[in-house]
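Input/output pair, single chain:
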Amino acid sequence: MARSAARASAKRNERAVVGPDAIGGSMRARVGDEIVVRGTTAGVVARDGEIVGLRRPDGSPPYDVRWLDNGRVTLYFPGSDAFIRHLVTGDDDVTAR
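Output:
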């Protein structure tokens, strides 16, 4: 739980930005960004996670995501129901895993 408390504290000092590179086929992420998945049909569970690893140097999918609901890290291929919430920290580099 100390990790989630530290993450919440860090979030207060960052701005969340959702832009054109955060959705759809042009999705790009950085380690530390959040991925938000919202179902498009009834009964689909919404999930939020932290991107903890990139597989491609340009930040395109797939991503290693630590899901906030259970702490598990999985390889995730985002669909049309997902978007990236960039946390702006002043560092524009996208680093591959």
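Residues 1-18 have pLDDT under 50 and may be disordered. The radius of gyration is 13 Å.
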